[in-house]
Amino acid sequence: MKLAAIDIGSNAVRLQITRVLEYEKMITFKKLEYVRFPLRLGHDVFSEGRISDYNEERFFKLMTAYKNLIDLYEIDAYYGCATSAMRESENGKEIVDRVRKELGIDLQIISGEDEAEMINKVILQGLDNDHYIHIDVGGGSTELNIYENHQKVYSKSFKLGSVRILEGKDTSENWGEMWDWVSKYAFKKGEKITAIGTGGNINKLFELSNPEKKTRKMSLNNLMRTQDILKNLTLDDRLNKLQLNPDRADVIVPASDIYIEVMKAAKAKSIIVPDVGLKDGINYHLYQTHHPESEKVFVKN
Predict the structure, then answer these.
(1) Measured between alpha carbons, how far is 241 from 133 in angstroms, rounded to an integer?
(2) Buried b or exposed e, range 19-34, using 16+ CB within 10 angstroms
(3) Facing residues of 156 across strands?
(4) How far is the C-alpha of 91 from the C-alpha of 165, rounded, in Å?
(5) For a 10 Å CB count at each end of the chain, is N or C smaller?
(6) How far apart are CA 36 and CA 267, in angstroms?
(7) Which InterPro entries match (predicted)?
(8) Residues facing residue 19 across a β-bridge
């Protein structure tokens, strides 16, 4: 079985094509193709409230390319979803309708809560009964989930994201609301909590911090040291010395601010970086849709 996941974010648009391998009770998602294009729809939306004609045409070209790849791989099922930028754009639905009519690709504009739930399905696979806060930072929004005893107990989406901050569209009210929520629901005196970080920026921060690779875990202090190093580098240094992609080099510091502030509010001393994201949640959602009886089957990515 082959699946395709389309993730239309505020900073980049991703396509992942996956083959599902089934052996006994083990399901492996084997990546066949992964394309990430830095379209940055959030630049338009958070500044002007709509996607520009120029970027609409670029988006349409990209969807055409993705459709060709989906057809070439002869996939069995796909799911495409758009997040913060598209749902806040005044012409987002119009663009999605155009893609459906002209290309036959059905895209869904999903809420922050639905986005978090998609990723939640994958995250839960690797958790024990301890106390966790999951932080998923995108270009336009941040989704937070709190887990206890292998169950999600609280969840909320906030209008804070790397591109939104870069554009100066975050407010002190946004930050205060997030801090208050985390302090209320995540922090419990005397109880240890561990953060889980998803999103392209935390994966890159993890790589740059030289942590213990086997556990994919780093301390808050290590994360803050890595952020300080990045802050003291010019954009050119980040591009040339660290060889970051242009669409990563400018947003990685704003994104790190969110991870750090949430961890401080929750009193989390370390963060696990499992290298999964919305695209993996989409694949799991697709598999469950076609195999509803497989809810308790372990999924290895």
Answers:
(1) 33
(2) bbeeeeeebebeeebe
(3) 144
(4) 22
(5) N
(6) 34
(7) ATPase_NBD, GppA/Ppx_hydrolase, Ppx_GppA_N
(8) 2, 30
Whether 259 and 195 have beta carbons less than 8 Å apart is answered as yes
Residue ranges of the chain that CATH labels 3.30.420.150: 127-272
Neighbours of 65 (CB within 10 A): 13
Q: Any bridge partners for residue 78, and if so which?
A: 4
Structure tokens at 154: 């609280």
Judged by average pLDDT, the poorest of 114-123, 173-182, 239-248, 255-264 is: 114-123
Residues 6+ apart with CB under 8 A from 41: 8, 9, 10, 13, 51, 55, 59, 85, 86, 89
Where does the chain hold its CATH 3.30.420.40 domain(s)? 2-112+278-300
Burial of 128 (0-12, 13-18, 19+ CB in 10 A): exposed
Domain 2-112+278-300: what homologous superfamily? Answer: ATPase, nucleotide binding domain (3.30.420.40)
Distance CA 120, CA 229 (A): 31
β-pair type (194-198, 270-272) = parallel
Chain centroid to Cα 187, Å, comes to 23
Fold of 127-272: Nucleotidyltransferase; domain 5 (3.30.420)
Amino acid at site 269:
K
DSSP letter, residue 38: -
What is the distance between the alpha carbons of residues 291 and 27, in angstroms, rounded to a whole number?
12
pLDDT digits (tens, 9 = 90+) for 206-251: 999 876 667 789 999 999 999 999 999 999 999 999 999 999 999 9
Placement of tokens 């909590």 in the chain: 193
Separation CA 117–CA 87 (nearest Å)? 17
Residues in the chain: 301
pTM above 0.90, yes or no: no
Q: How confident is the model at residue 189 (pLDDT cuts 50, 70, 90)?
A: low
